[in-house]
Every structure is written in structure tokens, then in C-alpha cells.
Automatic annotation (TrEMBL):
GO cellular component, one term: membrane
Record field: transmembrane: 16-40, 69-90, 105-124, 131-155, 167-186, 405-424, 430-448, 510-537
Top-rank lineage group of the source organism: Eukaryota
Protein name: ABC transporter
GO MF annotation terms: ABC-type transporter activity; ATP binding; ATP hydrolysis activity
InterPro entries per record: AAA+_ATPase, ABC1_TM_dom, ABC1_TM_sf, ABC_transporter-like_ATP-bd, ABC_transporter-like_CS, P-loop_NTPase, Type_1_exporter
Record keyword ATP-binding present: yes
Primary site of residence: membrane
Length: 875
């Protein structure tokens, strides 16, 4: 195959660069299209120009069957010409022994098959391709093929059938490329005309009718409402969650909101940077030291990966010399290198150093998420599902390995691949490197595809997993309710159903996982066989020594493992990010009630509490409190009465700052509670709630929870004051008795008295009693009233009570109805008013008449003269 020197060099150069350019262009253009496609399909991307979305999107005709099949046929034709050309070289080698295809031509054919093969697969696997990467790649291809064909023609002075066939194929390929470009350009023009006709080239992608493309409703987000098509990037797997439960939709909504704020998926990924301080030990010298040790070990391992198989090759070479001498030095070096690279060598050091790094991340993620959850406001805690929350934190902790993984696994494996590519070239030739590159790219490509395929399944799997945990948790936590309604079987069925859903999701996910893994292993085996065949052939021809074959065989393991890791790591990183989306969402949920910057501690001197025109609503659609104003003077007792659902507890919640007022203000000693620290504010209160909950620890510890430094004696005094001490003494374990989860081992009355003891022990500045004695009988209540008098003496106190007898001595009684204070005054004043308060009394007493024989004599003319006789002595 004689060639004139200059033309020959030009042809060689073209052979090397042409397919590489096509491949690089296609990959780059497609990567950009993938990003955009991902965002479009995920309804995430928002490129705002003049307030409108004007992102390029596939035209409506982009996915037309004729267009796609034509493109596939043309591209497949191009591949066929390449294969045909390879066959002509092979046939010639067989027909004319000793005639070999030039190396540049082989590389050209191999890389070209790979490049155009990728184009075929790209069109075939996508229902609605973005055409410009294909068109650009073919334009480039045509631009290179023409001079290649001309040079090839000029350079061949021996014209025979083989050369003619090859040149015919070359021309045919050029023609196919030109045809692809012409047809593609015509389609592109048609697309533009259609889009202009429809005026949608610059139409907002968020076509929800909102002015300037502004989203109006969650359902309207996105460029292609209602489509479940897979776009060029195959990203519907990643972005779509059709059929997932509400919480995933909620997650998507929040993701959408976040991405809208950030402007792109890069912004979305960037959000994960909030985890970096939890993963990177900026202040922990010991962990930093461990990271350095891991780095050194990894550096050494890169060398060992090459040195061990190389040493084996050296030993083989020594042996083939047949000198009859045992190669002691070579074998000793090999032994030491093998030991260092084995699991017993540097790996042990690495594993030991990894443990503190992992524990650091585990601790910081765990502690941060726990503190964050505990710091979130009541609205979050009212809505949360504990089981799901715990699972989200568990799954989020997967991130602990992310940094280590990226630095110490992903980075070295790319280095390993680069080294391998060069090393096999040195050992053999460029063909071996091409085999390696082909195996590598195919392996990673299949890995990436199966990952994309399995991401949606993974999300379903996660959702099903969390759901199973939620169902189980709810049933166990509500065991009493379940038993009251005898719904044991129902709950078991519900749980079994959730396990079935989990199993189905798991099966679907792992099937994708295993099938992908199987396909990758097949590629690896075929690659190993191809490399071995080539190596054996070269050794048999005597072009390379036997030692090189042995080195390659031993080295292949070091090639396989980074390849497996690249693909696995794509899956792993995706999985880590998917798993931790919930935790990220959690971290992004900010407490609605928080300290303002420079908030100061509250200073309570007298304890005056003033509500000034307070408005509040849990839901903007329904007002809960309307213009509530009153002042509790220092040391006064203010009672809140009224029909259920009127807003009494809400007033206390606002005072506690579980929520912020929507209008007006709440002041304690002239300090707006929004301007002081939450910590100091809540430290000032002692609360006895409607339904006190206890920890499943001893009574002693439960009461002491109110003041952690209280002595045993102080705890007992508080219990005496709350009239529960004698009762506790009757328990077999006394104060050491555990109370069961949430205090279920205590009766309602006992539970309330423990809660009262807690409030007494706390010695708060302001006392809040929310139905504190609703479950206590009248006799015990009389004892407790004395304790209350001691507790509330000199302290501003708020009492909510349905049993009106308990609040008749209050300094101020507020009658709350439908979120408003409709009456206010003392017991006597309100009786004189003869309004709602009296009506409440009447209602209650007529109930008591039936239950405890209380009689009521109401003077119709003057209700303030109401006389109440009660055998129970409640008034
Ligand atoms: N977290 C919440 N989210 C939404 N609405 C709520 C929430 N908590 C209470 N509400 C509603 O606010 C209104 C006032 O509730 P609140 O608990 O303050 O009433 P209340 O007067 O204390 O009732 P009760 O005497 O029965 O305890 C009710 O209609 C209730 O349904």
C-alpha cells in the first residue's frame, strides 16, 4: 500500500482526528442537550428572557416515525460501510498474506464504528430526539470523509478489487453523510417554519396562561404538560415520578420551587453543598489526618496496580530464559508488592483510616438533622410523619460516604483508567488500547443507561420503604385506638399491603439493577477475550514477549475494577443524591418561627402580658383569631372560656410563640415576643397541657425534665404539691416506676398531676394551664387547687377551663367565641351581663344536674342573683 509521503501523512492524520472529532462533538452537543432535556422533561429548567421561558425544545415533528427511521437507516448504512471496509482489509490480508491494514486505518474504522454506532443508538433509543447533535456530527463527518476519500483514491497506485471496493464504500459513506445533512437541514427548516407559524419558538415554556410565563398552579409547571415522553436524554426516568404518592409530588413541587429559584439543575445539585460542612472535617485535625493517610494509600495503590502484574511479567521472562536459576530477587519483589496490594496490606491501613472519617460524617449529619428537626416549628411537627422522618434521616446518612467516595474512589479510578490505556499501549499497541477504550466506554455507557433506567424505580422503592415504615409506626403508636375499634386485622392487612408494595418496588428496582449488571459483565468478558486473543496472537507471531501476555492477564483485573467502579459510582452517586433528597428538603424547611437577628433575651420583671389586636389564621382561608386584645396585669389570673374550637388554646400557643401572629402584637413587660429569643421566652413559661405526654422513663426523671438540676427532694415536694406523691408511693417501684410510652401506664388524672408537678417544679414566671384538671375528680381537684394557688401566687397565669367552677375566682375572664373576645370581666361582672358566660354556666349546670344532682335557681329578672346548690360542692 504505497503512499506518497506528504499525502500519506495527511491521510494518517485525518484517519486519527476525523472520527475523534465526530465523537467528541456528538458527545459534547448531546451532553448539553441532555442537561436541557433533563430540565425540560423534569419541568425544571427556566431560562428567563424578559420574564419568559424561551428554551429550545424538540419540535412537534421531531419524534415522527418516518424521520427517525430514515435517520436510523442512513446512520446504519454509514456503519455498514465502515464494517464493509474493515472486511475488505481482512479479506485482503487473507488473500495476500503479509498485507496488513495500516494502523491509522484500523483506528479510523474502529473509532468511526463507535462514533456512528453511538448516533444510531441515540436516535433509536429516543422517541423525540433533539436533532442538532446528529446533524452537526454528520456535517463534520461529511467534511472529513470527502478529503479522506480523495486522498485514499490518489494514494493508491495499485488498483485492485479490494481497493475499488474500499473506495466505493468510502464514497458511499460520504454520500450517506451528505444525504443525512441535506434531509436533516430540510427538516430543521420545516421545524422552524412550523414553529414560526404557531408562534411558539419564543413562546413561554410554562404555557399555563399566566402572564410572563409565571407559574400559577403546580399542575401547570413545565413545558409539556401531561406528556410522559422520553426526550433525547432519556431523562424521563430521572425526572418523572408519575404515579408516585403525594409526598413525592410534594418533593417535586419543592424541587421545582428550588430549581426555579436557582435557574437550573446545576443550581439543584449545588444545593447539596449544604452537606459539605457536615462531610468535610474543617476543624477536626484527627479526621483530616485520616484523610491524608487514605490519600497516601491510594497514591501508592496506583503504582502497585501496575507494578504487581509487571513483576509477574518479569518473572515469566526470567523463566523463559531457561537459565535454571531461581529468580529470587524478582520473586521476592513480587511477593512484597503482592502483599502490599492485598487486603492484608495497605487496605488494612485504609480501612482503619476510613472508619473515623465515616463516623465523623455520620455524627455531623445525624446531629445536624436532629437539631434541625427539633428546631422546626409547630406547623411542621403537626404535619410530619415520624416514621417517614426517621427514615429520611437514615437514608440521608448515606451521604456520609459521598465525599470519601468522590475523592478516594471516583478520582483514582479515572487515574487508573488513564494509566491502563497508556500501559497496554506500551505493552502491546494501539489496537489493545482501542479494545480497552471500547470496552471502557461500552461498559460505562451501559452502566449509565441502566442507572437512568433504575432511578425512577429506586425512587419508588424509597417511597415504598418509607411508607412501610410509616404504616408500621402509625399502627404501633396508635395501638390503643386500634384496640378500641378492634382494628388489629385491618392494620395487619394494611401493613402486609405496604410490605407487598415494598417488595414489588424492590423487585422492580433490583431487576433493573441486576439486568444492567449482567449486561456490563458480558461486555467485560467479551473485552477480556478480545484482548487475550490479540495478545496471544501477538505472542504467537513473536512481536511481543510472553511476559507481556502474563502482565496483561494479571493487569486486566486492575482494569476491570476501575471500570466497574466508574459505572457503579454513577449509580451510587445518583442513589446517594436521590436518597438524600428528603434530608435536603428537610434542611431546606426553615422554622417559620425563629429568632430575629440580634434578638435579646426577654427580661420579665412584673409579668404583664398584653395582646394588642392580635389576628391569626392557621390557614389563610379561615381566620382563627380576630383582633384579640386584653391585658393580664402582673400576677393576675386570666381565664379563657368559651365553646370548643373558639380559639382558646390558640391564644396560649401564640403566647408560647409556637406560631407568629398575623396581625397585632403580643407583649410581655412591653417587649414584643417576636423580638426576644425563643429560648428565653419559652424558659419563662410553665405549661400544663391538655394532654400531657411523658417519656418512657421513671416518674422521677419525667418530673425532673421540667428543671434538670432539681434534687430528688424538690421533685418529691412538687409531686406533693400536685397531690400525686402519695399515689406514686403506692406504685411497686415508687418514683422509679416507668410510665410507658407517652405515659400510658398512668391514668388520665395521674398523668395530669405529674404534668402539674412538672409545672410546679419549674417555678416559671408565667403559668399556662390548658384544661389542666379536666381529668381530675372534684375531690382531688380541691387539693390541687391549693397547689395551684401556691403555683400561681404572684405569677401571671392563664387558665383554660371548661369546668367553669375552676375559674370563677380569676381576675379576668375572657369569653372567646369564634376567635373573638365577646365578653370580658370578673365572674360577677359577667353574670351581671347575662350573656354568653351565663349561658355557658347554665348549660354546664344543667348537665351537672343530670350527673351530680346540682340544682340551679336562676332569677329570671336578675341573673347575677343566680343561686347554685350542688351536692358535689363544685360551686
Ligand atoms: N394546627 C392547626 N391547624 C389548623 N387548624 C387548627 C390547628 N389547631 C387548631 N385549629 C383550629 O383552630 C380553631 C381553634 O382551635 P383551638 O384549639 O384554639 O380551640 P379551643 O377553643 O382551644 O378548643 P377546645 O376548647 O376544644 O380545646 C379550631 O377550629 C381548630 O380546628
Amino acid at each position: 500500500m504505497a503512499r506518497s509521503a506528504n499525502d500519506s501523512t495527511a491521510l494518517q492524520t485525518l484517519h486519527y482526528i476525523a472520527p475523534a472529532c465526530v465523537l467528541v462533538y456528538f458527545c459534547a452537543a448531546r451532553a448539553i442537550a441532555t442537561c436541557c432535556g433533563y430540565l425540560v422533561n423534569s419541568r425544571f429548567l427556566k431560562i428567563i428572557v424578559d420574564g419568559r421561558l424561551v428554551l429550545h425544545k424538540p419540535s412537534k415533528s421531531a419524534g415522527g416515525a418516518t424521520r427517525r427511521y430514515t435517520a436510523i437507516a442512513l446512520l446504519a448504512g454509514i456503519c455498514a460501510t465502515l464494517v464493509g471496509q474493515a472486511i475488505t482489509y481482512l479479506a485482503r490480508s487473507l488473500a495476500e498474506p503479509g498485507t496488513w491494514a495500516p494502523q491509522d486505518a484500523v483506528v479510523y474504522l474502529m473509532v468511526s464504528v463507535f462514533a456512528y454506532g453511538s448516533l444510531v443508538i441515540g436516535v433509536a433509543e429516543t422517541s423525540s430526539p433533539l436533532w442538532h447533535p446528529y446533524l452537526g456530527a454528520c456535517l463534520l463527518g461529511a467534511a472529513f470523509e470527502t478529503p479522506i476519500a480523495v486522498l485514499d483514491l490518489l494514494l493508491h497506485n495499485t488498483k485492485n478489487d479490494f481497493v475499488f471496493s474500499r473506495l466505493a464504500l468510502q464514497l458511499c459513506r460520504t454520500a450517506l453523510l451528505v444525504a443525512f445533512c441535506l434531509i436533516g437541514s430540510w427538516h430543521a427548516r420545516q421545524d422552524r417554519l412550523t414553529q414560526c407559524d404557531q408562534g411558539d419558538e419564543a413562546a413561554p415554556l410554562l404555557s399555563n396562561g399566566a402572564p410572563n410565563g409565571a407559574p400559577t398552579a403546580a399542575k401547570s409547571y413545565g413545558a409539556f404538560p401531561g406528556t410522559d415522553e422520553e426526550y433525547d436524554d432519556g431523562s424521563s426516568d430521572i425526572g418523572s415520578d408519575a404515579g408516585d404518592p403525594d409526598e413525592t409530588k410534594d418533593l417535586k413541587k419543592k424541587q421545582l420551587k428550588r430549581v426555579e429559584e436557582k435557574g437550573s439543575w446545576i443550581g439543584y445539585v449545588k444545593e447539596f453543598k449544604i452537606f459539605i460542612p457536615m462531610l468535610w472535617p474543617t476543624k477536626n485535625r484527627f479526621v483530616q489526618g485520616c484523610l491524608a493517610v487514605i490519600g497516601l494509600v491510594l497514591f501508592a495503590e496506583r503504582f502497585l496496580n501496575v507494578l504487581v502484574p509487571r513483576q509477574l511479567g518479569i518473572i515469566t521472562e526470567k523463566l523463559t530464559e531457561n537459565t535454571g536459576v531461581f529468580p529470587v530477587r524478582e520473586v521476592a519483589i513480587w511477593g512484597i508488592l503482592s502483599y502490599l496490594s492485598s487486603r492484608a496490606g495497605l487496605s488494612v491501613v485504609q480501612n482503619l483510616a476510613e472508619l473515623p472519617v465515616q463516623q465523623f460524617a455520620y455524627k455531623s449529619i445525624g446531629a445536624e438533622s436532629f437539631a434541625h428537626i427539633m428546631g422546626l416549628s409547630m406547623d411542621f411537627h403537626n404535619d410530619k410523619s415520624s416514621g417517614e422522618l426517621i427514615r429520611a434521616v437514615d437514608q440521608g446518612q448515606n451521604l456520609q460516604g459521598l465525599l470519601e467516595f468522590a475523592l478516594f474512589q471516583v478520582a483514582p479510578m479515572f487515574i487508573d483508567l488513564g494509566i491502563a490505556f497508556v500501559y497496554v499501549y506500551i505493552l502491546f499497541d494501539i489496537y489493545m488500547s482501542c479494545i480497552l477504550a471500547f470496552v471502557g466506554v461500552a461498559y460505562i455507557w451501559v452502566g449509565a443507561k441502566t442507572t437512568a433506567w433504575s432511578v425512577r424505580r429506586r425512587r419508588r422503592f424509597n417511597t415504598a420503604w418509607r411508607n412501610e415504615s410509616k404504616v408500621q409506626n402509625e399502627a404501633i403508636n396508635n395501638w390503643q385506638t386500634v384496640s378500641h375499634f378492634n382494628r388489629g386485622t385491618y392494620e395487619c392487612d394494611r401493613y402486609v399491603k405496604s410490605i407487598d408494595e415494598f417488595n414489588a418496588a424492590e423487585m422492580s428496582y433490583f431487576m433493573a439493577y441486576f439486568i444492567g449488571g449482567g449486561a456490563q459483565s458480558l461486555i467485560m468478558v467479551l473485552g477480556r477475550l478480545a484482548a487475550s486473543f490479540l495478545a496471544i496472537y501477538r505472542v504467537s507471531q513473536g512481536t511481543v514477549p510472553l511476559g507481556n501476555f502474563i502482565t496483561l492477564t494479571a493487569y486486566w483485573r486492575s482494569i476491570e475494577s476501575p471500570l466497574a467502579q466508574v459505572s457503579w459510582s454513577i449509580r451510587r452517586v445518583t442513589q446517594m443524591l436521590t436518597d438524600s433528597e428528603r434530608l435536603l428538603q428537610l434542611f431546606q424547611t426553615k422554622a417559620t418561627v425563629h429568632d430575629i437577628p440580634d434578638a435579646k433575651d426577654i427580661s420579665i420583671k412584673s409579668g404583664e402580658v398584653a395582646f394588642e389586636n392580635v389576628d391569626f389564621a392557621y390557614d389563610v382561608r379561615k381566620s382563627t383569631l380576630k383582633s384579640v386584645s386584653f391585658t393580664a396585669k402582673p400576677g393576675q389570673t386570666v381565664a379563657l372560656v368559651g365553646e370548643t374550637g373558639g380559639g382558646k388554646s390558640t391564644i396560649l400557643k401564640l403566647l408560647y410563640r409556637y406560631y407568629d401572629v398575623a396581625g397585632g402584637s403580643i407583649k410581655i413587660d412591653q417587649q414584643d415576643i417576636r423580638e426576644v429569643t425563643l429560648d428565653s421566652l419559652r424558659n419563662s413559661f410553665g405549661m400544663v397541657p391538655q394532654d400531657p405526654a411523658l417519656f418512657n422513663v421513671s416518674i422521677m426523671e419525667n418530673v425532673r425534665y421540667a428543671r434538670l438540676d432539681a434534687t430528688d427532694e424538690e421533685v418529691k415536694d412538687a409531686c406533693r404539691a400536685a397531690a400525686i406523691h402519695d399515689k406514686i408511693d403506692t406504685f411497686p417501684d415508687g418514683y422509679k416506676s416507668t410510665v410507658g410510652e407517652r405515659g400510658v401506664k398512668l391514668s388520665g388524672g395521674e398523668l395530669q398531676r405529674v404534668a402539674i408537678a412538672r409545672a410546679i417544679l419549674r417555678q416559671p414566671k408565667i403559668v399556662l394551664l390548658d384544661e389542666a384538671t379536666s381529668m381530675i375528680d372534684a375531690e382531688t381537684e380541691a387539693t390541687i387547687q391549693q397547689a395551684f394557688r401556691r403555683l400561681t401566687a404572684g405569677r401571671t397565669t392563664f387558665i383554660i377551663a371548661h369546668r367553669l367552677s375552676t375559674i370563677q375566682h380569676a381576675d379576668l375572664i375572657l369569653v372567646i367565641n369564634d376567635g373573638e373576645v365577646i365578653e370580658r370581666g370578673t365572674h360577677e361582672e359577667l353574670f351581671r351581663l347575662n350573656g354568653k358566660y351565663v349561658a355557658l354556666w347554665s348549660k354546664q349546670l344543667s348537665k351537672d344536674v343530670k350527673t351530680v344532682g346540682t340544682t340551679l335557681h336562676v332569677d329570671e329578672q336578675d341573673p347575677a342573683q343566680l343561686e347554685i346548690d350542688t351536692t358535689a360542692g363544685s360551686t
